[in-house]
Design a protein that fits this description.
Blueprint (H helix, E strand, L loop, with lengths): L1 E4 L4 H10 L4 E4 L13 H13 L7 E11 L6 E2 L12 H11 L9 E11 L5 E12 L15 E3 L6 H4 L1 H7 L1 H13 L7
Parallel strand pairs: 1-2, 1-3
Antiparallel strand pairs: 3-4, 3-5, 5-6, 6-7
Helix pairs in contact: 5-6
Length: 196
Protein backbone atom coordinates (compact mmCIF):
# COMPACT_ATOMS: atom_id res chain seq x y z
CA UNK A 1 0.00 0.00 0.00
CA UNK A 2 1.06 3.59 -0.55
CA UNK A 3 1.34 5.71 2.58
CA UNK A 4 2.68 9.17 3.31
CA UNK A 5 5.11 9.40 6.22
CA UNK A 6 4.67 12.79 7.87
CA UNK A 7 8.31 13.30 8.77
CA UNK A 8 11.30 15.24 7.47
CA UNK A 9 13.75 12.76 9.02
CA UNK A 10 15.40 10.69 6.25
CA UNK A 11 16.74 8.18 8.80
CA UNK A 12 13.22 7.35 9.99
CA UNK A 13 11.95 7.03 6.41
CA UNK A 14 14.78 4.63 5.58
CA UNK A 15 14.26 2.51 8.71
CA UNK A 16 10.48 2.32 8.37
CA UNK A 17 10.72 1.45 4.67
CA UNK A 18 12.73 -1.62 5.72
CA UNK A 19 10.50 -2.42 8.70
CA UNK A 20 7.26 -2.16 6.68
CA UNK A 21 8.24 -4.03 3.50
CA UNK A 22 4.69 -4.33 2.14
CA UNK A 23 4.23 -0.58 2.30
CA UNK A 24 5.39 2.06 -0.16
CA UNK A 25 6.29 4.90 2.18
CA UNK A 26 6.72 8.35 0.69
CA UNK A 27 7.91 11.44 2.56
CA UNK A 28 5.41 14.20 3.10
CA UNK A 29 5.37 16.95 0.49
CA UNK A 30 4.47 19.59 3.08
CA UNK A 31 7.11 22.32 3.43
CA UNK A 32 6.50 22.62 7.16
CA UNK A 33 5.31 20.07 9.72
CA UNK A 34 2.93 20.89 12.56
CA UNK A 35 4.48 22.06 15.80
CA UNK A 36 4.74 19.24 18.33
CA UNK A 37 2.38 20.47 21.04
CA UNK A 38 1.28 17.10 22.46
CA UNK A 39 2.25 15.92 25.91
CA UNK A 40 2.90 12.31 24.83
CA UNK A 41 4.60 10.54 21.92
CA UNK A 42 1.19 9.22 20.87
CA UNK A 43 -0.41 12.69 20.75
CA UNK A 44 2.41 14.03 18.58
CA UNK A 45 2.35 11.02 16.24
CA UNK A 46 -1.42 11.30 15.82
CA UNK A 47 -1.23 15.05 15.15
CA UNK A 48 1.29 14.41 12.38
CA UNK A 49 -0.89 11.72 10.81
CA UNK A 50 -3.92 14.04 10.93
CA UNK A 51 -1.89 16.85 9.40
CA UNK A 52 -0.90 14.54 6.57
CA UNK A 53 -4.52 13.74 5.76
CA UNK A 54 -5.06 17.33 4.55
CA UNK A 55 -2.61 16.82 1.69
CA UNK A 56 -2.71 13.07 1.05
CA UNK A 57 -4.12 11.85 -2.24
CA UNK A 58 -7.27 9.73 -2.56
CA UNK A 59 -6.93 6.25 -1.15
CA UNK A 60 -3.64 7.06 0.54
CA UNK A 61 -2.93 6.37 4.19
CA UNK A 62 -0.85 8.72 6.33
CA UNK A 63 1.59 7.71 9.04
CA UNK A 64 2.75 9.85 11.94
CA UNK A 65 5.75 8.90 14.07
CA UNK A 66 7.13 10.29 17.30
CA UNK A 67 9.93 8.77 19.30
CA UNK A 68 12.51 9.63 21.89
CA UNK A 69 14.54 8.73 24.92
CA UNK A 70 13.45 8.63 28.57
CA UNK A 71 16.19 8.58 31.22
CA UNK A 72 15.56 7.61 34.85
CA UNK A 73 18.17 9.98 36.31
CA UNK A 74 16.63 12.89 34.42
CA UNK A 75 13.06 12.15 35.60
CA UNK A 76 12.08 10.90 32.15
CA UNK A 77 13.73 13.64 30.15
CA UNK A 78 14.41 14.37 27.34
CA UNK A 79 11.20 12.48 26.43
CA UNK A 80 9.09 14.19 23.76
CA UNK A 81 11.76 16.88 23.52
CA UNK A 82 14.49 14.41 22.52
CA UNK A 83 15.07 15.85 19.04
CA UNK A 84 15.45 19.39 20.41
CA UNK A 85 16.98 18.61 23.82
CA UNK A 86 19.93 20.96 23.26
CA UNK A 87 17.68 23.67 21.82
CA UNK A 88 15.92 24.52 18.54
CA UNK A 89 17.97 23.48 15.55
CA UNK A 90 20.32 21.29 17.60
CA UNK A 91 21.71 18.22 15.88
CA UNK A 92 22.30 14.70 17.16
CA UNK A 93 25.82 15.47 18.36
CA UNK A 94 24.70 18.47 20.44
CA UNK A 95 21.83 16.50 21.97
CA UNK A 96 24.15 13.64 22.94
CA UNK A 97 26.68 16.06 24.43
CA UNK A 98 23.97 17.70 26.56
CA UNK A 99 22.69 14.31 27.71
CA UNK A 100 26.16 13.15 28.77
CA UNK A 101 26.81 16.46 30.51
CA UNK A 102 23.60 16.22 32.53
CA UNK A 103 24.44 12.63 33.52
CA UNK A 104 28.01 13.39 34.57
CA UNK A 105 28.51 11.82 37.99
CA UNK A 106 25.29 9.79 37.75
CA UNK A 107 25.74 6.02 38.10
CA UNK A 108 23.69 2.86 38.48
CA UNK A 109 19.92 3.10 38.12
CA UNK A 110 20.15 6.79 37.25
CA UNK A 111 21.60 5.83 33.86
CA UNK A 112 18.73 3.46 33.10
CA UNK A 113 16.81 4.57 30.02
CA UNK A 114 14.39 3.47 27.36
CA UNK A 115 13.64 4.36 23.80
CA UNK A 116 9.94 4.84 22.96
CA UNK A 117 8.32 4.89 19.51
CA UNK A 118 4.69 5.60 18.63
CA UNK A 119 3.31 5.08 15.13
CA UNK A 120 -0.19 6.16 14.11
CA UNK A 121 -1.66 5.33 10.70
CA UNK A 122 -4.85 6.95 9.44
CA UNK A 123 -6.88 5.56 6.55
CA UNK A 124 -8.52 7.86 3.98
CA UNK A 125 -11.68 7.52 6.12
CA UNK A 126 -9.71 8.53 9.27
CA UNK A 127 -9.75 5.04 10.77
CA UNK A 128 -6.84 4.88 13.19
CA UNK A 129 -4.32 2.09 13.64
CA UNK A 130 -1.49 2.30 16.16
CA UNK A 131 1.82 0.65 17.03
CA UNK A 132 4.05 1.23 20.06
CA UNK A 133 7.50 -0.10 20.85
CA UNK A 134 10.06 0.36 23.61
CA UNK A 135 13.67 -0.66 24.10
CA UNK A 136 15.19 -0.73 27.59
CA UNK A 137 18.84 -0.13 28.33
CA UNK A 138 21.31 2.29 29.85
CA UNK A 139 23.30 5.36 28.86
CA UNK A 140 27.02 4.78 28.27
CA UNK A 141 29.68 7.07 29.70
CA UNK A 142 30.77 8.17 26.22
CA UNK A 143 29.63 7.96 22.61
CA UNK A 144 30.74 4.88 20.66
CA UNK A 145 30.04 3.67 17.14
CA UNK A 146 29.30 5.23 13.77
CA UNK A 147 25.93 3.67 12.94
CA UNK A 148 22.38 4.75 13.64
CA UNK A 149 21.32 8.26 14.55
CA UNK A 150 19.97 10.26 17.47
CA UNK A 151 21.12 8.85 20.81
CA UNK A 152 22.26 5.50 19.34
CA UNK A 153 25.97 6.17 20.09
CA UNK A 154 25.28 6.29 23.85
CA UNK A 155 22.39 3.83 24.23
CA UNK A 156 23.36 0.32 25.35
CA UNK A 157 20.37 -2.09 25.17
CA UNK A 158 19.77 -4.59 27.95
CA UNK A 159 21.75 -7.77 27.35
CA UNK A 160 24.36 -5.97 25.22
CA UNK A 161 27.73 -4.36 25.90
CA UNK A 162 27.82 -2.35 22.68
CA UNK A 163 25.82 0.77 21.85
CA UNK A 164 23.09 0.68 19.20
CA UNK A 165 25.46 2.65 16.96
CA UNK A 166 27.95 -0.21 17.27
CA UNK A 167 25.35 -2.97 16.89
CA UNK A 168 24.29 -1.69 13.46
CA UNK A 169 21.28 -1.60 11.17
CA UNK A 170 20.64 -5.35 11.03
CA UNK A 171 20.36 -5.46 14.83
CA UNK A 172 18.05 -2.43 14.84
CA UNK A 173 15.78 -4.01 12.22
CA UNK A 174 15.17 -6.93 14.58
CA UNK A 175 15.29 -5.41 18.05
CA UNK A 176 14.73 -1.65 18.12
CA UNK A 177 11.78 0.26 19.56
CA UNK A 178 10.89 1.34 16.02
CA UNK A 179 10.96 -2.28 14.82
CA UNK A 180 8.55 -3.29 17.61
CA UNK A 181 6.22 -0.38 16.84
CA UNK A 182 6.26 -1.15 13.11
CA UNK A 183 5.42 -4.82 13.72
CA UNK A 184 2.47 -3.81 15.92
CA UNK A 185 1.27 -1.30 13.34
CA UNK A 186 1.50 -3.77 10.46
CA UNK A 187 -0.59 -6.25 12.46
CA UNK A 188 -3.11 -3.57 13.43
CA UNK A 189 -3.55 -2.40 9.84
CA UNK A 190 -3.73 -5.96 8.47
CA UNK A 191 -6.36 -6.32 5.77
CA UNK A 192 -7.72 -2.81 6.40
CA UNK A 193 -5.17 -1.45 3.95
CA UNK A 194 -5.91 -2.18 0.28
CA UNK A 195 -3.14 -3.37 -1.96
CA UNK A 196 -2.10 -0.67 -4.44
Amino acid sequence: MIAELVSKNPHKLRELSVLLPGWQLEPTAAAELPEETGTTFYENARAKALFGRTAAGPGRWTVGEDSGLEVVGLAGRPGIYSARFAGPGAGDEENVEKLLAELRGVAGVGRRARYVCELVALSPELEERRGRGTLAGRIAEEARGAGGFGYDPVFVPDGEERTVAELGDAWKARRSHRAAAAAQLATAVGSAAPER
